[in-house]
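Bench log. Compound arrived from synthesis this morning; before running ITC I wanted a structural hypothesis for how magnesium ion sits in the protein. Inputs:
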Amino acid sequence: DATIYYDDDADATYLDGKTVAVLGYGSQGHAHAQNLADSGVDVVVGLREDSASRAAAEDDGLEVATPVEAAAAADIVSVLVPDTVQPSVYEAIEDELEPGDTLQFAHGFNIHYNQIQPAEDVDVTMVAPKSPGHLVRRNYQADQGTPGLVAVYQNTTDEAKEEALAYAKAIGCTRAGVVETTFREETETDLFGEQAVLCGGVTSLVKTGYETLVDAGYSPEMAYFECLNELKLIVDLMYEGGLGGMWDSVSDTAEFGGLTRGDVIVDDHAREQMEEVLEQVQNGTFAREWIVENQAGRPSYQQLREAEKSHDIEVVGEELRGLFAWAEEESSESEGEDEK
Ligand code: NDP
Ligand code: MG
Ligand code: MG
């Protein structure tokens, strides 16, 4: 079973006298940088000269430098720019890493798929909050924690894990719990999860359900509510009480129908396809496809995005969400809920 670390397992003194360079001030960057600073850690934010994020970081009272200057000043370089630009940013700062410095990530893609190959004399770690950055910041300010992951890829100092845990503590993650993992496990489960279930699987399930109802002559509005809008209520129940909590809350008819029909929809064929998707994650096929897609300027990605935007369910949904102001009120209320 996985090891989980809490505040008492993390020793903040491993950051004493160290400077952290946070490269990027987006979703994760702004949260890590501000939480570290509020925890008393020396932080310098690394942004390109013309960065649109520069003003925000300065307004938040942080020191801002270029990525190269920040890395030169730092003992720990936290790489929080988008995954697709990390290799080129790394190339620029590589020479600033001294023996014993730490290169740190919040996702394992570039290390696991060898897009970044760090020198052997630096520590390479991961501290990955399992949450969007704005919640990492908000939870910290509310004296709450955000669950996270910690992993060590390279440990030249013998203190890589202790230092990563100190960092996790400083951004508030050990308040909630930090699960020990590896770069490989984090990268592969993350990619599989978002492809098969969270982002890919769920949107396809929603669209196919919607199309089936509309093709059979039901109104798009009804199909939208049944297949998309209500999903949130079901997911909230699962989040709070697992599958059992959800089954307990829906009607017996819904429970019996779901238990008898669910496996008919996600059948052995779907399972084989999931295994295939996992294999493409494991053997690097997906990673190569995504790397090449980026090198080519993202032609397929743009096309797929456009197609998704113009799907009927999006057009109908936008209208309906505009009409039903209560939906908006409800979603902003639930955003403020405790994320634990
Ligand atoms: P963002 O897309 O929010 O990062 C944007 C920041 O990166 C901006 O400050 C931007 O500055 C800067 N940036 C972009 N391109 C460059 C460049 N070429 N050179 C220098 N700076 C650049 O990233 P995320 O926070 O979403 O992701 C960061 C890491 O965290 C990734 O590894 C991601 O996988 C991981 N992660 C993300 C989570 C999330 O919820 N978003 C959750 C857990 C992990 P500018 O204004 O100059 O463009
Ligand atoms: Mg240095
Ligand atoms: Mg993910």
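What the model suggests: The radius of gyration is 22 Å. The domain at 4-182 is CATH 3.40.50.720 (Rossmann fold).
ITC booked for Thursday regardless.
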